[in-house]
Design brief:
Blueprint lengths: L1 E6 L6 H13 L6 E5 L1 H4 L2 H5 L4 H9 L8 H7 L5 H12 L4 H6 L3 E8 L5 E5 L5 H10 L9 E3 L2 E5 L8 H6 L2 E7 L14 H7 L4 H26 L3 E4 L14 H17 L1 H9 L4
Parallel strand pairs: 1-2, 1-7, 2-3, 7-8
Antiparallel strand pairs: 3-4, 3-6, 5-6
Helix pairs in contact: 1-12, 4-12, 10-11
């Protein structure tokens, strides 16, 4: 039986996921594979490298640094989150990503991106943690409009959440019988159609498939939530999600608020720790 981990995105709501993952690492909870979407990819990779505390550490330290994220960076480079600073300066110098530990960990780590020409999800195995894998992770977290299209391995890509926000169905087709699903929205949340859809389609007119995806995103997301709940009732997934609404935006810059969301993730994970372990260890589910 293969056990897995499905990590939803949500930009800075991903601090919740970081809190959950740190508790899992502290308590020796391991799985055979994981799939991360957007923030679930760029933050979740630290679970494979075993770096407890790294996500909350560098985010609270640099979230207000204009090199990390700023309107100026967006205007100057076309990316709200500074590529040089976020994907080179931090992981290579300021708070090094442990590529060696990442590669040596036998757990498979997948990321989800969206092909801008077809609008379809692309699932990619990132098991080395090298520059090419980091590029795939960056593509998974490249939000439309505020990020440039990322070209890698013959694909032109943007945020995986556009096409498959919660890839639990795909993961099951890869043979993962039981998975922990970490959501960054509270129980009962359902996505509504964005009132900015016409604007998004206009701004993304070069890539009509992305505009169409964005128009239907609420339907896909809500269908994924329904699927997760069905699998939960069947005992095939174990869901961890915020016990209350996360009170921050996607681009939150207040380190105290980021810490609060991280602590919420830790609290929820600790409260469900025994149930989580029992779920993974019980082969009768």
């Amino acid at each position: 039986m293969k056990t897995g981990l499905v990590l939803e995105g949500g930009a800075m709501r991903g601090m919740y996921t970081a809190g959950v993952l740190d508790v899992m690492m502290e308590n020796g909870i391991k799985v055979d594979g994981a799939v991360g979407v957007s923030a679930g990819a760029v933050f979740g990779c630290n679970y494979k490298s075993g770096q407890i505390g790294r996500v909350i550490r560098y985010n609270t330290k640099y979230c207000r640094d204009p090199r990390y994220s700023s309107l100026g960076t967006l205007i100057k480079t076309g990316d709200l989150y500074g590529v040089d600073f976020c994907y080179h300066m931090i992981p290579e110098i300021l708070d090094p990503f442990d590529q060696k530990a990442y590669e040596e960990n036998p757990m498979d780590f997948y990321v989800v991106c969206t092909d801008v020409h077809t609008g379809r999800p692309i699932y990619h195995l990132c098991n080395k943690g090298d520059a090419n894998d980091i590029l795939w992770m960056r593509a998974s977290a490249s939000m439309p409009i505020v990020s440039k299209v990322v070209s890698v391995d013959g694909y032109d890509l943007l945020d995986g959440g556009i096409s498959d926000s919660i890839p639990v169905s795909w993961f099951m087709r890869q043979g993962y019988d039981k998975s922990i699903v970490i959501l960054t929205r509270h129980d009962g949340y359902r996505k509504k159609k964005s009132k900015f859809t016409p604007v998004i389609r206009a701004l993304m007119k070069k890539y009509p498939a992305i505009g169409k995806d964005m128009e239907q995103r609420h339907l896909k997301y809500n269908a994924s939530i329904s699927k997760v709940r069905k699998l939960e009732r069947q005992g095939k997934v174990f869901v961890i999600q915020p016990s209350s609404k996360i009170p921050i935006g996607r681009t939150e810059k207040d380190p105290e608020k980021l810490r609060m969301v991280y602590d919420m993730g830790r609290k929820d994970a600790l409260s469900q720790l025994k149930k989580m372990k029992d779920f993974l260890e019980n082969e009768d589910n």
